[in-house]
Design brief:
Helix content is 35%, strand content 23%. The protein has 253 residues and is of the alpha/beta class. The protein folds into 2 domains: 21-48 and 218-252; 62-199, no CATH class. A hairpin with a 2-residue loop joins strand 4 and strand 5. Helix 1 packs antiparallel against helix 3.
Amino acid sequence: MPEPSASTEKPARMIPSPASRRPGIRNLLLALLGVAVFSSLGNWQMNRSAERRAEIEAFEKARAAAPAEGLGAVSPQGGYLRVALSGRYDGERQILMDNMTHEGRRGYHVLTPFHTSAGVVLVNRGFIPGGMDRALLPDVSVGGARRRLTGVAAPYFRAGLQLEEPGAGDAWPRRVTYPSAGQLRALIDPRLPEYQILLGSGEADGYVRAWQPYGMPPERHFAYAVQWYGLAAAAAGIWLAVTIARRRTSNEN
């Protein structure tokens, strides 16, 4: 009997079943989600970096400008503006803003009510170091004689993360932690505006005044943006590597 001849036809390639395609679809969706989320966070950090740069430029411009006269020149919403004020300090009811630092030292910002003909505003007289014994507060006394001063209207400092409630108590000066404008109004005067006055560096009765817009520097926002973009690229790269490996395995089989 004649021997059967060997077949020269190649085996038909099997079409992947829907079940075998599910891991690939799932991996693609996860990769797209990761790229979208990480890129969105990177864009947000880039926007924050640009906003912080604009804020610093506005602050420096205000510091160098000639002072406007009185509280009436400041927008009710605040903003950076150099102003000249005439009035009197209220040294009996001062705020010590806790958890402030300068050059590695912990201390307070001293906020003193300043009464003018147009209303009352809190003047931030600068940073004063705290002592080893937190129960002993620094002497921040100031005279109540009429005076004229200049400073920059600026938003109140806000914590990036509020871990504790503002301090309470009956004694003055009152030690608090990142109070809101509403809390300061309840303590001092209901007419307080939405901003403070950062006392000018040449004015009397001030402490350390290394003023900058409060918050994270723009360079740090940029660095975080680079990290988020890197994670987006990593998500895409992992998906690509897994996909190539799966196809090689499928072809070998």
